[in-house]
Design goal:
The chain is built from 3 helices and no strands. It is an all-alpha fold. It has one domain. 9% of the residues are buried.
Length: 86
């Protein structure tokens, strides 16, 4: 009984959630790797909050951008047909 709009939103929320989680882990790994390499090479390192927010925002944008088409396709499917091929 869900409306196509509800299905689209569910898929988009899932897509943004997954890419945001990936963005968080990517930031943690990137910052950690930067600190390790900088320490080994004796380089100064500076990580700004602005750069981290840009990276985080970009990951959320990727989730919306690349999640929209699958969400749209899923919302157009007949539920019986979608379950038949599950």
């Amino acid at each position: 009984g869900a409306k196509p709009r509800d299905i689209r939103m569910q898929f988009l929320i899932e897509s943004v959630f997954l890419t945001t989680i990936g963005g968080i882990f990517g930031l943690m790994l990137g910052i950690g790797a930067s600190l390790i390499v900088a320490d080994l090479m004796k380089w100064p390192v500076s990580i700004s909050l602005f750069s981290a927010l840009i990276a985080f925002g970009f990951s959320a944008f990727v989730g919306v951008f690349f999640g929209f088409y699958p969400a749209y396709k899923a919302s157009m499917l007949n539920p019986i047909d979608a379950l038949r091929y599950e």
